[in-house]
């Protein structure tokens, strides 16, 4: 059972008031794995997305959380291994980057490989089955610039993944290791955004925590298939994707694209757009009852840095799996900290 997914194909960079998005093209994804029972456990299928999602992770085991983290680490290692094989030191130099930039990417790959070793060793000590690598598609990484942009997205999403999953661990002795990986992902994201891309090094005072299923929605854009023998992970499904044009900007009217038939919503009027930011969640209504146009919040309202855009069915409670209808799609809205309007948002 499969669904169409929007996928990477090209990158667009804009001024400080425009976004760059993870570029996307369309194809199908098939993701399978062993269930807690016997049927397919996690997938990005339209049938699963039409069901009523629960935000209750109380039955998730520590092994499933660690295998979820390991799934993401495998994804990152595959991305960096392929990218560094494709883009030599000369390619980085030709793109205008110092030799130290590619050398630091070699170190990031080593960090992610070390994370895999750690997670595997902990799972072995627990006597748990261990997930193996999936098959991936990084076709959006077509040159050094797009490789760098994708790496920034992976590291930022990785920090949000660990932020959201840490609370699911029942064994508190596992938290120091999870926290140390989280901080490393955040440091790597900061280095890429500030030193390599010359953008804002952070989005605000906090990371944006995302649930395993929300993270898996993003990760499934790059996963073609996983071994059927893989054990269950904390993520059980991917939500339908949201397409966002590269013209999206704070304060702009933007037409989103998603397939209402793939969602759990029965009525378009029930839906809202949620913007998860470092400084909190912003909800917006669609501009009319028969279009997917929405006016994005302004910078003054907090649309800065990394933002995750979702379609939700409620504005009266926190964004959870139960209220998520589609997405998230990550965006970056770069900002200049010396801009008086930005300075006013962060008073001393």
TrEMBL record:
<dbReference type="Pfam" id="PF13668">
    <property type="entry name" value="Ferritin_2"/>
</dbReference>
<dbReference type="InterPro" id="IPR012347">
    <property type="entry name" value="Ferritin-like"/>
</dbReference>
<feature type="signal peptide">
    <location>
        <begin position="1"/>
        <end position="19"/>
    </location>
</feature>
<protein>
    <recommendedName>
        <fullName>Stress response protein rds1p</fullName>
    </recommendedName>
</protein>
<dbReference type="InterPro" id="IPR009078">
    <property type="entry name" value="Ferritin-like_SF"/>
</dbReference>
<dbReference type="InterPro" id="IPR039254">
    <property type="entry name" value="Rds1"/>
</dbReference>
<keyword id="KW-0732">Signal</keyword>
């Amino acid at each position: 059972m499969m669904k169409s997914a929007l996928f990477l194909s090209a990158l667009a960079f804009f001024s400080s008031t425009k976004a760059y998005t993870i570029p996307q093209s369309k194809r199908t994804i098939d993701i399978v794995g062993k269930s807690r029972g016997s049927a397919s456990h996690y997938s990005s299928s339209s049938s699963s997305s039409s069901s009523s999602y629960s935000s209750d992770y109380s039955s998730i085991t520590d092994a499933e959380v660690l295998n979820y983290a390991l799934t993401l680490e495998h994804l990152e290692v595959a991305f960096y291994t392929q990218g560094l094989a494709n883009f030599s030191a000369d390619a980085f130099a030709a793109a205008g980057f110092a030799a130290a930039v590619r050398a630091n990417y070699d170190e990031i790959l080593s960090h992610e490989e070390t994370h895999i070793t750690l997670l595997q060793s902990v799972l072995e000590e627990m006597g748990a089955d261990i997930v193996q690598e999936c098959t991936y598609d990084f076709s959006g990484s077509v040159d050094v610039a797009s490789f760098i942009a994708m790496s920034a997205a992976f590291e930022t999403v990785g920090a949000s993944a660990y932020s959201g999953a840490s609370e699911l661990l029942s064994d508190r002795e596992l938290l120091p290791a999870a926290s140390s990986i989280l901080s490393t992902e955040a440091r790597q994201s900061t280095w890429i955004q500030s030193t390599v891309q010359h953008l804002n090094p952070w989005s605000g005072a906090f990371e944006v925590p995302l649930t395993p299923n929300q993270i898996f929605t993003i990760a499934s854009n790059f996963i073609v298939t996983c071994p059927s023998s893989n054990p269950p992970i904390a993520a059980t499904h991917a939500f339908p994707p949201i397409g966002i044009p590269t013209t999206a900007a704070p304060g702009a009217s933007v037409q989103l694209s998603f397939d209402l038939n793939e969602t759990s919503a029965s009525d378009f009027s029930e839906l809202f757009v949620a913007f998860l930011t470092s400084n909190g969640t912003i909800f917006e209504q669609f501009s009319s009852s028969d279009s997917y146009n929405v006016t994005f919040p302004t910078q003054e309202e907090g649309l800065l840095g990394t933002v995750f855009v979702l379609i939700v069915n409620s504005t009266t409670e926190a964004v959870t799996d139960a209220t998520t209808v589609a997405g998230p799609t990550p965006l970056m809205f770069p900002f200049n900290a010396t801009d008086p309007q930005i300075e006013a948002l962060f008073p001393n």
